[in-house]
Design brief:
Number of domains: 1
CATH architecture: 4-Layer Sandwich
Distance between the termini: 26 Å
Strand order of the largest sheet: 1-4-5-6-7-8-9-10
Helix content: 25-40%
GO molecular function: transferase activity
Largest sheet: 8 strands, mixed
Shape: globular
Keywords: Transferase
Structural class: alpha+beta
Strand content: 15-25%
Protein name: Peptidase C45 acyl-coenzyme A--6-aminopenicillanic acid acyl-transferase
Low-confidence stretches: none
Order of helices and strands: EHHHHHHHEEEEEEHHEEEEHHHEEE
Mean pLDDT: 94
């Protein structure tokens, strides 16, 4: 998998991103054009008009990222509206389309781990990119995500990391779109600042952000336009899949999870509960968790399932394990049970 180094101003970062990944950015647009038509009956032009309403929210809460998105558009020879629409794809489509994803934070022997599988449509597998960003006005960070998007899953040199679980809901209000909020978290110097993205900036549609820090703190944030729900560690772990379960949020937001979300959460809890407090934990052991096939096809590691309708089929596109204490991220592109070639990145301590 290609690793892209981006440095400089917001415009420089955007230009580099757009030039390096012009082809997968266009491929991503084609994927979401089909998805929007399948799920919400919008073609790309209509989706672009739908995305316009988020511009003012971004301008108010994270204006610098607009300059970077403009640079991505210029570098890829597209229009800013195309890149804005890609980055608002959750807000446009998650009323009907729901991804997978199984995520957990784990603290053991003074080391804070953060890990997840990202499950989505198989036609996005080749459009996954790894960005190593050293901006003039933010800490060095690594983001794993889709070409043309400003962030998804990753960590920074201060030892702040974030994972994402999609939530299917009809709720959408005032706040930052999900992927802009993730980038703002990845630029945070500490966990309090990261959590403030959810509590102060707010997030305009429901999702779960699993945030953790190198000093052994972790929290699950069930974000939405209101006050987020907070999930605290139990036995050193926080786990989440694709349904809301904090009572403070479920009384406000209705979600529509897939049938596999609760079985995957129960399995995560079981597997992490089986790790004794003094058991050695390393990347290989945690990738075993991400490779689990118990209760297939409703398993943590998800494979092609011909029994599902085509538009509902989701597969694991990558697994990632982050050692936040040592600022080390290890990625397996594709299904973690099959992919033995790992990409490992280490950031300097910030």
């Amino acid at each position: 998998m290609q690793l892209t180094y981006l440095t400089g101003s917001r415009r420089d970062i955007g230009l580099g991103h757009g030039r390096a990944h012009a082809a997968p950015i266009r491929a991503s647009i084609a994927v979401y054009d089909r998805l929007f038509q399948d799920f919400v009956g919008l073609d790309w032009g209509q989706a672009r008009r739908e995305a316009e309403r988020f511009g003012a929210m971004i301008e108010q809460r994270f204006p610098a990222i607009l300059e970077e998105m403009a640079g991505i558009a210029e570098g890829a020879e597209l229009e800013l509206a195309d890149i804005l629409t890609l980055n608002c794809r959750s807000e446009i489509s998650l009323t009907q389309a729901s991804g997978g994803c199984s995520a957990f934070a784990l603290e053991r022997a003074g080391t804070q781990w953060l890990a997840q599988n990202w499950d989505w449509r198989a036609d996005q597998l080749d459009n996954v990119v790894v960005l190593h960003i050293e901006g003039d006005d933010a800490p060095p960070l690594v983001s794993l995500g889709e070409a043309g998007m400003v962030a998804k899953i990753g960590m920074n040199a201060h030892g702040i990391g974030v994972c994402l679980n999609a939530i299917r809901s009809r709720t959408c209000g005032e706040g930052l779109p999900i992927h802009m909020a993730l980038r703002k978290i990845l630029e945070s110097p500490d966990l309090a600042t990261a959590r403030a993205v959810a509590t102060d900036s707010r997030v305009c549609s429901p999702a779960h952000f699993l945030v953790a820090s190198a000093d052994g703190q972790a929290a699950g944030l069930e974000v939405h336009p209101g006050e987020p729900g907070t999930l605290s560690p139990r036995g050193g772990a926080v786990t989440h899949t694709n349904h809301l379960y904090d009572a403070a949020v479920t009384c406000q937001v209705e979600d529509f999870p897939r049938a596999d979300s609760r079985p995957r959460l129960e399995r995560l809890d079981t597997l992490l509960g089986d790790l004794a407090e003094d058991a050695p934990v390393n990347e290989a052991r945690l990738f075993e968790v991400l490779s689990d096939h118990h209760h297939h096809p409703l398993s943590i590691c998800r494979h092609f399932n011909p029994d599902q309708p085509a538009e509902e089929r989701m597969e694991t596109l990558f697994g990632v394990v982050m050692n936040l204490t040592e600022r080390r991220l290890t990625l397996r592109h594709g299904k973690p049970c099959e992919s033995r070639d790992s990409l490992t990145l280490t950031l300097p301590l910030g």
